[in-house]
Task: structure prediction
Amino acid sequence: MHALNITGFDRINFSKNALVNFGIFLTRNEGWMQEEAMTECKLISVFLSETDRIYKPEDLTQKEFLKYSRIGAKKSLNRQARAKLFSLYSNAVKHAAVIALAKKQETQKKQ
Result:
């Protein structure tokens, strides 16, 4: 995904919403329990934080997605199952980006 021109508080909200969306998509599309989805999102958040990209969820590559530590995960997944989830993660990030950019444009119109 290309770099987004979102900064400040909007960037923080975008990052949070991307992971929230991913959790929602896991429960809705994949039939995960809410606790499983929340734990998975926390694991991704920890990985992003450890790699100094906590506010850049769009920078997580498919290769990294397959390799982040899942110690403590509530649901076991093999590499093939994880690979299928990357497109769901990407869609969650894109969804959050569309909303963030729309809010940004709305704010600019009001000024």
